[in-house]
Amino acid sequence: MTDFAPLLLALRRGPRGAAPGVVNPYRDELPGLDLPGAPRARRRNLAAYLERVGRPRLVLVGEALGYRGGRFSGIAFTSERQLAGGPAHRLPWAADGRFAATSANPALWLEPSGTVVWGALGGAAAGVLLWNAFPWHPAGARGPLSNRAPERRLLLANLHVLERLLAAVPGAVVLAVGRTAAAALAQLGAPAPALRHPAHGGASLFRAQLAKHLPGAAARGTC
Fold it and tell me: By percentage, how much of the chain surpasses pLDDT 70?
């Protein structure tokens, strides 16, 4: 199994340099938004997910954690409702009770992009690692329940985490989800095929592009 321990430690430490408006879900607990002990629960969620992944054969790299997704679940492209919600939303690999909601939102957050990504993957976690070029949550101008793209300065100062991830998954197929991820990978000298981000009307194209890289694609004639 891949050793993700150094990555988990880097996430908990948080971003390097000045990072105004950035929430570190693996360390920060905001009153009114987070349940008591939320950072620890998110670290456990991520660790349990990585166990499900095992040895990655496919890595999807997005931009940053969003407040409806990884900000509260601890996992890229994944919402807490997919981890701890009812059967209609819960992912098959999260049905054993090891995963917890961490927000004070009684309805639990649900991220549309995460729903699209996991639907395209068929809900299976084994061998598929979801990550972000900037693996924390840059809050937007409207506060902690909003998103913004990480500034170039912030992204470049923290590419060491993505670089460490790439070193931990030799041989895996790496795909960039969106332009920010594609630029980050190129900056590290590891250019990757770019997929349309599923947000803002990109879901159908994302599904079609991702399908070409899933197991069995060649046999289906999609390569």
Answer: 96
